[in-house]
Amino acid sequence: MLLIGNNSVVSIDYKLTLESGEVVDQSPEGEPLVYLHGASNIIPGLEEALVGKTDGAELTVNVAPEKAYGERHEEGVQVVPREAFQGVDQIEPGMQFQAEGPQGPQMIMVVAIEGDEVTVDANHPLSGKTLTFEVKVLSVREATAEEIEHGHAH
């Protein structure tokens, strides 16, 4: 039996919930998440919890914000002029755009519109939240040289 560690290709079924109990993501029926362990393809807290597990393992993992999508930063919320969205006719809350930030491209979400002012949020929607994963490990195998070179499972 192979244990999960760096350069393992792991297949999991998962359900992600918030502290409120709201389900925010889950693997579709019959479509597990397949990833290369140790290549930063999943959040650090979940990856750490899976080390040493094997196929058939079932676990519930609580992941604090610093091991998930980070803390929420209020400076990530800004009001920008509507003309910053040139070429976009209809802007609505919930829409996401790629913007150029200080560290390169980043996703922003429109959270409010008042007249010619658009409030955007560059924080990940799950930042600042403790996440709970219910996970079942379906399979573990050694990665191929090509998968390790590419940094993801094929």
Automatic annotation (TrEMBL):
Alphabetical UniProt keywords: Chaperone, Cytoplasm, Isomerase, Rotamase
CC per GO annotation: cytoplasm
Protein function: Also involved in hydrogenase metallocenter assembly, probably by participating in the nickel insertion step. This function in hydrogenase biosynthesis requires chaperone activity and the presence of the metal-binding domain, but not PPIase activity.
GO biological process terms on file: protein refolding
Protein name: Peptidyl-prolyl cis-trans isomerase
Source species: Pelagibaculum spongiae
Family named by the database record: Belongs to the FKBP-type PPIase family.
GO molecular function list: peptidyl-prolyl cis-trans isomerase activity
Reaction(s) the record says it catalyses: [protein]-peptidylproline (omega=180) = [protein]-peptidylproline (omega=0)
Residues annotated as transmembrane: none
